Each structure stands twice: as structure tokens, then as C-alpha cells.
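Aim 2 progress update. The chain analyzed this quarter is reproduced below.
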Amino acid sequence: MMQPTNTTFVRVSSYVRRFFYVKYGTPVVLPMGHPMHQLMLRHLVYNPTLQLISKQSVNRASMDPAIRSNIIELQTCQQADECDELMEVVMPDTVLRTGVAKQTNWYYQLDNAGSRLFRKEAKNEYWQEMQLFIRQCFVRAALMGEKVSREEAISDFMIGYGIPMSHYESMVRCERRERRRQEEEIEQRRDFMEKRANDVFLYT
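Predicted C-alpha cells:
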């Protein structure tokens, strides 16, 4: 009989959680080479006393009412609406600490820095995936001699990942903001490359 997989929980936006559950399964199973899997290898910590290490991360044990009832000072995930924000993620089986391989269990969770980095990576992946989907919609429409708007592509993306349409207006605004941010980053990288090459790009 197979042992149950150890999981931990990270607080993310509801739309990011739905996206990850559709893309990677429930709970989320990240490929070994995924940046967020590598991040867990570095930032998972053992927390048997269920202390409040981060408001954005809790371990599996803290979700068990039988265990939680015995810890008076537990401050995380005590209300149902808080638990609804948590995304369950499968942890690596082992982590290396001080040169020793440690078996993960229900008492492991991300530390404060790790949870912040994890949330940032998850958010970036969400918006990158949306931008890729929008570009693919534009290409498909062009090949078929049709037109599609960015808003229509965003709507289809939301449908594909089970994101409630009540988030639609927010998604349109956020997508516009993320697109501007990405454009600024691209311009900064281009400027850096031109300075390093001591030349000017001719065609882009």
C-alpha cells in the first residue's frame, strides 16, 4: 500500500489557485525541474510546534483539527474563509539540511521568504500563461481570417481554467497592468543588451 503524499499549503489568489489546480492537478504536483519545486527544496522548514512562521504558508498538520486542538498558541488558518485561500502543494520527498537528507512530513512548510517567493513565481506563471494564450488566440484568428479581441481571449482563458466570470473586470484591468510591466521589463533588457553590445538593434 502506497504511503500518502506529503503536502503543504500556500496562500494565493483564488484565480491563481484555480489555474494551478487545472494545470498541475489537485493537489498541485510540480515537475522536479520547475522553479517552484526547486524553491521548496531550499525553503521548506520543519515546524512541529505549529508556530506562526508566515501568514502565507501553513503545514498539513495545522489543517488537522485533532492536532490543532492541542496547540493553544496556533494562530494560522482558524477561520474557514482563510483556509479557502490556501493552495495544497505536494512537497519533495526529502530536503537536504546541513548535509543530511531529511524526510518531509506533515510538519513541513515554507518559511516566510520562501512563501513570498513562491507566491511571486505563481503569480508570474499565471500572467505569462495568459499572455501566451492571448497571442495564440490572435495567431489562430489571423490564420482563419477572423478577428478576436484581447478581452474575448481573456474570457476564454478564464473559462478554460474554471475562473468565475465575476473576476472578469478585474482580470482585464490586471492584464493591462501586467502587460505594461512586462513591456517595461523588455525595454530595460533591450537597453542593457545594447549597452553591453555597444550597438543598436536594427529590427526590433
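Confidence is low (pLDDT under 50) at residues 72-84. Helices lie at 14-24, 35-43, 65-68, 80-83, 112-143, 150-160, 168-197. These observations will guide the mutagenesis experiments scheduled for the next reporting period.
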